[in-house]
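To: structure subgroup
Subject: Chain for Friday's discussion

All,

I'm putting the inputs and outputs inline so they're searchable in the archive.
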Amino acid sequence: MMRAVLLVLATLAALPGQEWWFVGDIAGQPSVSLRVVESAMPEGRTATTEMTMLLGRRMGPLSSAMTIRQSTETRFDQADRVTAIRIDEDQNGLRSVADLRVERDAGGDETAVGELRASGRTTPVRIALRPGERLGDDRGMQRALAGLPVGGTVAAIGLGLVSGRVLPVRSLATITGRPDGLVAATVLADIAPIPMRVTVDPTGMLRSMVLDMGFLRLDLRPADGPVALRPAEIDPAAIVRRTGPAPTGLESQRYRLPRNGLVAESPFQRNDGAVVTVRATGDGPAPGPEWLAAEPRLEADHPDLRAWVAAQRGGAADGSPDLAERLRLAVRAHITAKGLDQADAGALDTLRSRSGDCTEHAHLLCAALRAARIPARVVVGVVYASDYGGWVGHAWVEAWTGGWRHLDAAYPGIPRPRYLALAEVGGTDGGIGRIAAALAGLAGGAVETLP
């Protein structure tokens, strides 16, 4: 989610000239670096944004450091219209590259066309913008921000590489004040609906940006040049606190959420205002065919993954609970390096590396189930883990085998009523916005266990 936020930030950073540096503090230490370069060319100009972020994750005895780098090069023609975008991302060695060109029809409507290369696969990309939308000019957006009155708004749209997908990133900036000769604005992006507070000077130069998620706060400011970064430690067990007794229900359990708390629609849980009831048994209709589709991070159609699934079948029948359980156990046994060093590896990379945390377990299990023609999805939320003394960020799988089935390959043995589903990860729009909104609503707050 932090990557998605920084993609939006990049649209606020580029200005005419040569080079600008920014540094971002997380928990009081520099963990994010942003470099913006703009170059003139005979056919127009090129703007390049390079972002580096260092994260550390700790969970009980496990810890890891993670480096995320993303470079976005945007080319403009002499009319200052976007003509091409290249996004190159590396997450701890997992690289994805999107190369896109912008086509315009007779009416001027824009479509980004190209390909995404990741995990040894090349996937075509085609994103048609809405009628009248134009990929944003960073310089124009900055000038518009600097010149607007209080209450004025400016919209922007760019392209971002988020969770293995190329997505349109739409944002809206609203001017909130003009303190000390600066222009203050609130920026809200559709893929990460958490308000960012931004200030620019009268020329449109970015002076500050603050993103506060409760459990994590990012403060970005200009820098004279590159700054030595230190990993910002994120503890999945520190996102949500517990009040009341520890959950004990085996068949059903009720919880009261914080005031802004959100949970997902799930066959295993129902919410009535701030009170959520979670049950051991799911109900509701069967899912649609999209739960069988191959997606980024869920490469259910890849021959290597299909061959692996075939080897795990034994005599289990298609679509049966026995086959689903066989695949859950197979994923748990296949991932032999249980750790936090993977950034956001998909099913295919996890099959090859045999390493990862709950995210990688869930990706591989979900893709394996879909390859076996069992509808499934990845769910992100929190689980009450007594050995960690509270709620822990987690990912697992929900599947349909003639009825709803809860499957957790990474952390099995916990009754389903001790899980709170916050968002579905998959889908063509990606789950980053839903996850961001849900985490922001729970972060720093407490979930109360009710009788």
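Points worth raising on Friday:
The CA atoms of residues 25 and 246 lie 35 Å apart.
The first strand starts at residue 19 and ends at 26.

D.
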